[in-house]
Amino acid sequence: MNKGLLYAILAYLLWGFLPVYWKALQTVPAGQIVGHRMVWSLVFVGGLFFLQNRWSHFINTIKNKKVLLIYLSAAAILTVNWFIYIWGVNAGYVVETALGYFINPLVNVLLGVVLLRERLRPGQWAAVGAAAVGVLFLTIVYGTLPWIALALAFSFAIYALIKKTAPLAALDGLFLETALLFLPALLFLFYQEYENDGKLESPRSQRSSTTDPRCAGFPQAGNIISGYHPPLAITRGPVPGGGVYHPALPRQARGRRRGG
Question: What is residue 251's predicted lDDT score, i.e. its pLDDT?
Fold first, then answer.
């Protein structure tokens, strides 16, 4: 089996269960969840870097300002995507976030064909057409403009396109992205704690959801695995159906959004 396809399947499975995890943290603001995800991501990926002794090659590579700019752009877009995704799930828009990840592969194929000059076989065009009809039907049934879905689809498609053309290996690129996001995220979390808006600690008389082990740094390893497979799926191509590929497909997309 093509390694890119295998990594994509693993990423789809991991990402599909993530909304269950975010729901367990729905008392925590989305911005803080994203901040913790950035911070603990660097800790986990840094550990992998240490174990694999990749530092010397990595340091030489990032001296190139163009490389830093590429990954800074990718990190910024990924932050927007993470925030919209987590906020959407915790606000009750699970169906719309799922729809975004139905739409995303179509956007990926479009970018792959238009910008990367990739060609699809007739059978692949037929599959894309069938998927497009299904997405159109779901959008009509949803009954309103799915702006969350569109934002997720296009933001991750752009991110995937950047990663497809980026020069670093999957793990190196992921480490650089998380390193660029680490300091702003850490400062944001410290500020939230200073303003007593943080969720990392709670009064002794109360048991906050953030004191639960699920909300500590340990689950971030699972999140990073799901974040690690997408770059692998993208860079280990070719993957059938277009060069830019999205691995996230929330699986509990059944029923309308809350209050809809």
Answer: 35
Residues 6+ apart with CB under 8 A from 196: none
| Residue 157 vs residues 12, 208, 212, 243: alpha-carbon distances, Å | 15, 36, 34, 11
Note the pLDDT tens digit of each residue in 162-195.
Answer: 988 888 888 888 899 999 999 999 999 999 988 8
Tell me how far apart the 2 most distant CA atoms of the chain are, in Å. Answer: 64
Cα–Cα distance for residue pair 124/14, rounded to 1 Å? 25
pLDDT, tens only, 56-87: 777 877 788 888 999 999 999 999 999 999 99
Domain locations along the chain: 3-199+215-235
125, 198 contact by CB (below 8 A): no
Closest CA to 101 of 254, 248, 256: 248
Which pair of structure tokens corresponds to residue 212?
């639960």
